[in-house]
Design goal:
With 447 residues, the protein is α/β, with parallel strands linked by helices. The protein has 15 helices and 14 strands.
Length: 447
């Protein structure tokens, strides 16, 4: 593969790669500093032939790494005959160019390899549009770097070379394509919002978590969905929703979502908002964590950061500590449970702890119920039928001019009975099993 091949035509598949990771004061090394970028490279299809790490206080503006480490990298490239260098850090276009000039091979950063993986694994039209938009928005400020292989004719005004002309044309084309993709994705977003809104009366639960935490395996176990579950990063890009029937509770709509990762490119988060609409609108999030991963706590924080970007930070969440059969030190699991009291430990692969998970989910969903006194006219058949179908009615009494009911109903369903002639008084402060003062003044005192 020629070093002069335009960058937008390249991928990392079937290439020999050297990995580089740099620790900074706000991003120190934890465990194996190359573990995650190695997983990304493997998922992208590259063959890893070497790796370098460096601790820096200040990034070198031209090559990111220091002069001595750059020389070491040059020697490693020659010794391994590598085709590609993958940085576990985000690089500026100038730094990419400086590194490529020094090493004479292609250099990509963490965001670019993640985008490459997403492009490879996108199957649905929606996912392909989202990935293309993210790639173009990532590439737009880097177009000058992409076309340096064309060269430029020196000179002043009116003497621009073919590289400058091509650069301007490409910018116009990319801008136009970005506008087109955003318009098409806005339609997808609106359609998705309508689809999700149509389920507002259902119990909706969404699986979220770090990539390769076992979300799809858990989805298959709970619903028999048959979604792809691989031991690779980003095996799921498209959201799937299936029915999960929980004993002694009923039907839940369970959604599987794309996995998150540390430093997930911002353009991807923005582009995939339509796909993640299920998580944004879910009643409950199941945050699935690979409990056997030594970086589990850091991964939890990375997912929480993305959830905050999506506006889901305050949503009810249950931490699901998955893969407990792979935990070598149980004290580490205990530390995770102590730090995250609202959690349950399971192994989806070994079918362990699933009953505990179901009980925890039911408890959290039922916590969203409210007890209330409802007063309406006996002729209001619509409200009475709705309460009969959706509420747990504890007591009811019929009078000539009104019907009085004490019932429990999910809070998000009360809007269905909020109309003229219906009086609702919440009884959250009432003891759960006291008799209802239904007669005369005692009822009116209660409300």
């Amino acid at each position: 593969m020629s070093f002069d091949t335009p960058r937008h035509e390249l991928s990392v598949r079937l290439e020999k790669a050297i990995l580089v990771s740099v620790a900074l004061p706000d991003r120190p090394f934890v465990g194996d500093p190359l573990a995650e970028i190695r997983g990304l490279a493997d998922t992208a299809g590259a063959t890893v032939v070497g790796g370098l790490t460096q601790k820096l206080h200040t990034i070198h503006p031209g090559t990111y790494i220091g002069k001595g480490k750059l020389q070491e990298l040059q020697e490693l490239v020659q010794a391994t005959d590598a085709d590609l260098i993958i940085f576990d850090n985000d690089l500026t276009p100038a730094q990419v160019r400086g590194l490529e000039t020094a090493t004479k091979i292609k250099v990509i950063d963490r965001s670019e390899v993640i985008l490459d993986i997403f492009a490879t694994r996108a199957r649905s039209l929606e996912a392909r549009l989202q990935v293309e938009l993210a790639q173009l928005e990532y590439s737009l400020p880097r177009l000058r770097q992409m076309w340096t292989h064309l060269g430029r004719v020196s000179g002043g005004i009116g003497a621009r070379g073919p590289g400058e002309t091509q650069l301007e044309e490409d910018r116009r084309l990319v801008d136009a394509r970005i506008r087109d993709l955003k318009a098409r994705l806005a339609e997808v977003q609106a359609r998705k919002e309508r689809e999700v809104a149509s389920r507002r009366d259902e119990y909706t639960v969404s699986l979220v978590g770090y990539t390769n935490a076992g979300k799809s395996t858990l989805m298959n176990l709970l619903t028999g969905a048959g979604v792809l579950a691989e031991n690779k990063l980003f095996s799921t890009l498209d959201t799937r929703t299936r029915q999960w029937h929980v004993r002694d509770f009923g039907k839940i709509l369970l959604s599987d979502t794309v996995g998150f990762i540390r430093d997930l490119p911002h353009h991807l988060v923005a582009s995939f908002k339509a796909t993640l609409e299920e998580a944004r609108q879910a009643r409950l999030l199941l945050h699935v964590v690979d409990a056997g991963n030594p970086h589990a706590e850091e991964q939890i924080q990375s997912v929480n950061k993305v959830l905050k970007e999506l506006g889901c930070a305050e949503k009810p969440t249950l931490l699901v500590l998955n893969k407990i059969d792979t935990v070598s030190d149980l004290s580490y699991l205990q530390v995770l449970q102590k730090h995250h009291p609202r959690s349950v430990a399971i192994s989806a692969g070994q079918r362990q702890g699933i009953d505990d998970l179901c009980q925890a989910v039911v408890a959290l969903l039922r916590a969203d119920f409210a007890r209330a006194l409802v007063e309406t006219a006996p002729s209001n058949g619509r409200v009475l039928a709705y309460l009969s179908a959706h509420a747990d009615i504890e007591q009811q009494e019929y009078h000539e001019d009104k019907v009085l009911l004490r019932c429990s109903l999910p809070r998000y369903l009360f809007h269905h009975i909020e109309e003229a002639g219906v009086k609702i008084t919440f009884l959250d402060d009432y003891p759960p099993h006291t008799s209802l003062p239904l007669h005369g003044d005692r009822f009116h005192d209660a409300i």
